[in-house]
Specification:
Length: about 325
């Protein structure tokens, strides 16, 4: 029997059910289109409804758009896409309004749709007033081209400021957040402008009820075990920039202990991988969370879906995170 995702009503302003997991597509390229179309088919078959993309993600929107049209699946899917990742990967100030116009129109064309379910700003720029940001984004809401707004890689103080402005002026505010969160504790921002959800951020989600859609929910592959303590001594000789950054950000003594514990608990639970245990840990949070997973094969997608049914006790959750 094929394991399936459950769905629930979760995103304010969206009348479609939200699946337990969101499908990450940042690496989708047209040259491997058939591979990605197959994964999209499997995701739909398993009950998946949420897909995460961005105008800056290469061919991702175009691949998704072709699939949506071919499968006639638009009404079933919740599309999260992002805009305004400008120079140095921050929200542009000088021509923000024009950037939103250009990128929203491009996204609609690429996705072959007339609306975006959740439109997110990719990264914040504190130099741009929140009023200016929300005034422009609410035009998209008024036109019906966007159904809900979100913030990706924004500080919680920045989101509070924006939502206070929205409430004061009877505008739509940010109802979904996409920051990093995983069992692997990042030693710093993986790239400039990225934001992780810390303990105070978790409390913010509990208090506001605003859901988190975390990227790198499995610590960018750290829990596969492909990274070792010995790689820290070899860091300067590692040629691949991504691998070198993984060593710098995730290869700490604490994370290797989390990895060891996830491997141990996975065996105890019945042949679960450390990656599945790490995903299960995140799914047990006490606030609304829809982790973004980025499987490159159908088998890895099935593994992610299987992790949804994992049952972990409070003691196990704390032990995994080195709290005892």
């Amino acid at each position: 029997m094929v394991a399936r995702l459950e769905s629930k009503a979760l995103f304010q302003g969206i009348d479609k059910p939200v699946s337990d997991l969101a499908l990450g597509t940042a690496f989708y390229r047209s040259g491997e289109k058939e591979k990605w179309l197959g994964i999209l088919d499997d995701f739909l078959e398993r009950g998946g409804t949420v897909m995460d993309t961005a105008s800056a993600y290469g061919d991702s929107e175009a691949v998704i758009g072709e699939w949506l049209e071919a499968r006639r699946a638009r009404d079933q899917m919740i599309i999260i896409t992002k805009c305004a990742s400008g120079e140095d990967s921050i929200l542009p100030g000088e021509n923000f309004e024009e950037v939103v116009t250009r990128e929203s129109e491009q996204s609609l064309e690429s996705l072959r749709t007339d609306y975006i379910d959740v439109y997110m700003l990719h990264r914040d720029n504190p130099a741009v007033p929140v009023g200016r940001i929300l005034d422009r984004l609410n035009q998209e809401l008024d036109w019906g081209r966007v159904h809900a707004l979100g913030a990706s890689n924004w500080t919680y103080s920045g989101i509070d400021e924006a939502n206070a402005y929205a409430q004061k002026h009877s505008l739509g505010g940010f109802g979904v957040v996409s920051n990093n969160l995983s069992l692997g504790d990042a030693a710093g921002p993986f790239y400039r402008g990225l934001v992780s959800t810390d303990t105070s951020g978790e409390r913010w989600h509990q208090q506001t009820g605003i859901p988190l859609v975390p990227w790198s929910s499995q610590a960018a592959g750290f829990f596969t075990g492909r990274y070792t303590p010995a790689m820290r001594d070899q860091r300067d000789s590692i040629e691949d920039p991504f691998t070198r950054r993984m060593v710098e950000i995730y290869c700490t003594d604490e994370n290797f202990e989390r990895l060891r514990r996830a491997q141990t608990l996975g065996k105890k639970k019945g042949s679960y991988s450390a990656v599945q245990i790490a995903l299960g840990w995140l799914l047990h949070k006490s606030f609304a969370v829809v982790p973004i997973v980025g499987p490159h094969t159908r088998e890895k997608l099935a593994s992610c879906v299987d992790a949804v049914s994992l049952e972990l006790t409070d003691a196990e959750l704390g032990w995994l995170n080195l709290e005892e």
